[in-house]
Design goal:
Elements (H helix, E strand, L loop, with lengths): L1 H31 L2 H8 L1 H4 L10 H11 L3 E7 L8 E7 L1 E2 L4 E2 L6 E4 L6 E5 L11 H11 L6 H24 L10 H5 L11 H15 L1 H15 L1 H9 L9 H4 L14 H9 L10 E8 L4 E7 L12 E7 L5 E6 L5 H14 L4 H38 L1
Antiparallel strand pairs: 1-2, 1-7, 2-5, 3-4, 5-6, 7-8, 8-9, 9-10
Amino acid sequence: MIVRKHWVTCHCYAGLLVMLLLLVNALTGSLITFAHEIDAWLNPTLLRTGHVLPALPADVLIERVEHADRRYRIGLFPLDVQAGESAELRVLPRIDPATGKPYVLGFDRVFIDPATGAVLGQRQWGALKLDRVHLMTFLDMLHRKFHLPGQWGMWLTGGVAIVWLLLSLLGAWLTLPKMATWHKGFWQRWKPAWQIKRGASSVRTTFDLHRSAGLWSLPVALMLAISGVYFSLGNEVFRPVVRWFSPITPHPVQSLPKRVGPPVAPAFSTQAAVARARHYLPPEARDFLPWYASHIPQLGSYRIAFKEDGMRERVWQLRYEQVFINDQTGELQGMTGYDSGSAGDRFLIWQYPLHTGRILGLWGRVLVFAAGIVTVLLCVTGLMVWWQRRRVPQRVAQR
């Protein structure tokens, strides 16, 4: 009994410690589950074109956009833009000849009409701005790292995820009936923990709501907490643990040697790079669709990504491949993805669709949205339970 009371106290104060951060994380997580839809509603002229005209070839669009503003080059070009939607390009500043330093752009995303190449607008991802253009990216960065600099935010969100994981497991364990009574009917004694007693006092109702909501949402909470550790503490915690069970393929961005000397222009176009990269795909991925293209001068590489049809939109669709080829010869430099990877690589790839709910399509996203709201409910009811129990001794003392 004393041991159990000790763990109840640990559960209580650990919850109070991370309550505010977890509440912020849960609210923002629920909202960004439907980030694209909300963003398009807030910024229709930025994310929508108003027509369904066919897109121009990638090389034509890249040339037009970079010619329109010589201060930047395109760092990543999407190859899967849907009809009626704008194309969101990631851009990188070029070196200003007058100063020898990169241009100060004030944005790192450019939106274009894929049928004409006309620039529709720009924004800085995750900027500390609450206007319509930046709101969803602000919430995204708040969710990822609380807008803290460097790795501090990632470490903090990772720590919150670990505490949340332990709180969820400990809370579930505390609802179990005493082991000495299991022979009298385990489920009959555990069943009340899943329910809210009718006609009970407000104090009991609050406690029942906290306990039952925690139990019903436990599977999703564990999934979100574990995948949250991956996103925030991937190199520090998640990957080292996964390597106990399976090797993980080094990512080419980190493992490929850096090119010495000034940047060299690629010997062939983006469209040619897509065609060459396809030849290196595993047999299982030969029918994958082009996803995005990126030229990385410091590696002397084109990074061409392919995805299975409906990836992260349809149920159980999550496979993709990233092919790195030499930008002068077209030779394969590296590859990372689902079919070409190890069991550990595949497990890592599962984390994003699990965390966002996209593994189950639209209904999975609805489930994650609801889980965020339930987590907010748990934070509020947990605080109420603590406050109500704290006032009980005071009332007794006053009598």
